[in-house]
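ingest -> validate -> predict -> emit
validate: passed (alphabet ok, no gaps, 323 aa)
predict: started
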Amino acid sequence: MRRRPLRLFPSAIALVVGGAAVWTAAAVLPLPEAELLRRLRDADFTIVSSEATGSGVMGAKEWTIRFADGVTIHAKWKVTPASGDGWNNSPRREIGVYAVQALFLDPENYIVPPSVARCVPLEGYRVVQPDPKPNLDFPGAHCVFGQLTAWLDNVRQPEVLFDRERFSKDRAYAFHFANLNLLHYLVDHRDARLSNFLVAKDPSDARVYSIDNGIAFGNLVFDYLVTNYNTIRVSALPRQSVERVRQVTRAQLDQLGVLGQLELDSAGVLRNVALGPNLDPERGVRFTATVLQFGLTKSEIDAVAERIRVLLTRIDAGELGVF
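emit:
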């Protein structure tokens, strides 16, 4: 995710160039979180260009996409297997990690970028592939299903993931890295390769961004040689984050069972719609004749609940500190 040309960002300073506003701030996200998530999930767009990301093993692409109002951004795209889910290609798990962070973080402190499921009409997909075919085992679907994730700008790969000395001296860094550790613990994240993290070039942003989160929620296939953060490795956690975790209810966790729902339209395109009741809590991806629904399984949600219980027990026993 390398530096990209200037693009629209409402909180920045505007210059007028050729009658158009150009925003100059060195932002990590191209638009405010909520607007970006809405556009990625629901807004029609045109694929302007597509190129390999240069990293990863699942064929991810960097797209330039243009919305109907002319706003143009970059995004990461990854096509799913025919089942809509895979060991390291799992929109439901990636979106699940994004959702879990919202249980204890405010958007300004999010460390996982917005990510959604989309099914792109075949005609619009020709920029990517000259003769595209539907990729899902879903009769009647005439689109390519995958995961669309916000592209981060003005970032770089960290030299080390966990800087213990900085953690002891820099309160902002300690706050953000401890939150990353807490998130990875809650979701049982098992892919902490250095290339899966980014840090802002702006020294005032102390976050470590987690950008590849598919190997989570008990995925049995992972690299045993990597030091993962699915255990608490920091010496203390932010008090405010812990107290928000303490307030999480089972009803909130059960909502993770439905993270996305798409319905077949008259043209054979699966479109995001309002979330409905869980069609099968035992399955991560569910199909009916016209609906694709996905989310965490009951056992995966049970595991998150148990990890919360264990964490709070350790904190209340004084085994793990807060700050």
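The mean pLDDT is 91.
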